[in-house]
Design goal:
It is built from 5 helices and 5 strands. The protein has 132 residues and is of the alpha/beta class.
């Protein structure tokens, strides 16, 4: 993983969490882009932003994370990026829905520290062998 700075887009409507995760990923040499709304994230990607990984919260003002994921899948962006849901929704139905819509992984915020989230994302990148 050390030979490339992976580009990550973090989407969360909670500014505190957005800043905290952005800092943690920057400290791990990720190129970080942030969006506080799903619509803004979609616009950035449509405008040419090509993140290797999208960290996506679910509970946001419309469009929520599931809707963002649906749009990214429909518009074929998921072929070029890995989407990891990072949310406090931990019900089996929510997790199943996230995977069904194309998420590569599903992380429940309450179960992981921000540093553990970064480690988990690195593991997912290694496992998926994201293209450079």
């Amino acid at each position: 993983m050390a030979d490339k700075n992976y580009k990550i887009l973090i989407v969360d409507d909670d500014d505190f969490l957005l800043d905290m995760y952005a800092l943690k990923f920057r400290e791990s040499n990720f190129d970080v882009e942030v969006s506080s709304r799903g619509e803004e994230a979609i616009e950035k990607i449509r405008a040419g932003l090509e993140p290797d990984v999208v960290i996506l919260d679910v509970v946001m003002p419309p469009p929520d994370g599931f809707e963002v994921l649906k749009i990214l899948k429909k518009e074929k962006f998921l072929e070029k990026m890995t989407v990891i849901i990072l949310t406090n929704l931990g019900q089996k139905e929510d997790i199943d829905k996230g995977f069904h819509l194309g998420a590569s992984d599903y992380i429940v915020k309450a179960h992981f520290t921000p540093s553990e989230v970064v480690s988990k994302v690195k593991d997912i990148i290694s496992r998926n062998k994201i293209k450079s």
